[in-house]
Every structure is written in C-alpha cells, then in structure tokens.
Design brief:
Length: 210
C-alpha cells in the first residue's frame, strides 16, 4: 500500500514530522492478538511478520522517510475479546465471534476499553483478572474467564519509549490523553502520559510530543 499510494521521499521534504499509527495493526478476526505489538513473534507467518511497530517504521525508512521526522503513535485504549473457551486464554486463542464482549462505557462500545477502564479492571479487581506480558512482542494482555483485554499499560509504554529513544525516532504521540487513568493506580492520575513524559528528556532535543 505504501508503494502504490505514497511518494515517501517527496512527502518527507514538505513535512516537519509524520505521525505513524502504531496501534490497530491487528483486528478482531478469529483469534486473539495485540493491536500494538512492538516486535514480531516466531509464530507469525506471511504478512503478519511485518505487521508490528518495529517493521512498520522500518518500512517507512526503507522508502525514504527521515527517521528524525517519524513520530510513533501509541493508543490509550485497548481491545476486548470474548474467548471461545476459558481453557484457551493465551495469544492466538479462538474467539467467540457470535457474542459481544463486555460493554466499555467510556467509549460507548463493546470492544474498546479506555486505559482507565482496563486499569480499573486489572489493577483494582485482582485476582479475577490475570495479567501477562508477551516477552517477544513486548506487549501485554489480561484474562478473566472468557474475557480478554489487550491494552497499553505502564510496562508496555515504557518499552515503546525506550524503543523510540534507542532507535532515534522523533518522538511519541498519543490517541488520546482523555483515555488515560484519572481515578486508578492508587490515586495516581495521567499515569501513561507521565511515563512517556518522564522518558522525554533522554530523547533528542528536537523531540516532538503530541
């Protein structure tokens, strides 16, 4: 799609920065997955090997984008799956596509919890929710019976901040600040944004924060 629709070197000349959507790169099709996976996994085959944050940014670089202009986008919301069985709860577990997952009141839909909702569930309703980190993709998910939530939290955000810092990209933008935790984490407000901002001074002086 990049090759067919965009002249990246020409676009790059006229832009101060480019926001790169590093989320919603997976969908609710038939198995569970992380929509903002940072790195690829050994289990992936075919096009899935390229559908991750690291490879997406590299694809832009390979086509002539300037690294100092690429701003990684992270989501302050997640996705919810209704699992086909409570016995199969890991990544790539079968999904029950005939029933709607839990209602997410903040965004007024069934499948998209704001971080403040995911935080409330996983952090405040222990031990019902079991949180797990994916060591390959450096992202997380949590399960509660036949419910599964995938979302960014302080640990996964820290991995993305470190990736941007280490690789020398321009910075980070978020979608969006209103979905951050404001009544959670023992009273700590705006936890995700604070985690990003705390990593900003270690980045280059021309960092863009949106």
């Amino acid at each position: 799609m990049l090759d067919a629709g965009y002249d990246i070197p020409a676009i790059d000349r006229y832009l101060d920065w480019m926001n790169v959507i590093g989320y919603d790169i997976r969908g609710v099709w038939n198995t569970t997955d992380i929509p903002s996976v940072l790195h690829g996994r050994a289990i992936y085959r075919s096009i899935l090997t390229e559908l991750n944050v690291e490879q997406g940014l590299q694809a832009l670089l390979d086509r002539g984008a300037s690294k100092r202009k690429l701003v990684l986008g992270v989501a302050f919301y997640g996705r919810v799956y209704m699992l086909a069985s409570a016995d199969k709860t890991g990544l790539h577990a079968p999904i029950d596509i005939h029933n709607k997952p839990q209602w997410c009141a903040f965004l007024f839909r069934h499948d998209m919890p704001a971080y403040l909702e995911a935080c409330r569930n996983v952090e405040l309703l222990k031990p019902m929710w079991i949180r797990q980190i994916d060591k390959e993709g450096l992202c997380l998910y949590a399960t509660n019976g036949e419910d599964m939530e995938v979302y960014e939290d302080l640990e996964s955000i820290a991995h993305k901040v470190e990736f941007v810092r280490k690789e020398g990209y321009a910075g980070i933008m978020v979608m969006s600040c209103d979905k951050d935790a404001f009544i959670c984490l023992r009273g700590k407000n705006n936890a995700l944004l604070e985690k990003i901002n705390n990593g900003i001074p270690r980045l280059r002086n021309n960092l863009v924060v949106l």
